[in-house]
Design brief:
46 residues, mainly alpha, two-stranded parallel sheet
Amino acid sequence: MKFRKSHALNIGDAVIAATAKEMGMKLVTRNIKHYPMKDVEIVKPY
């Protein structure tokens, strides 16, 4: 996993990001630091 060591990415976060990417959806989360991927659109809910 590319971001595992540098961003403490766990398998759950990776699955969520991959699902959002494959479905063409935005990922809404308050935990922005766990999703450093440039190809997944991250949205803060506040």
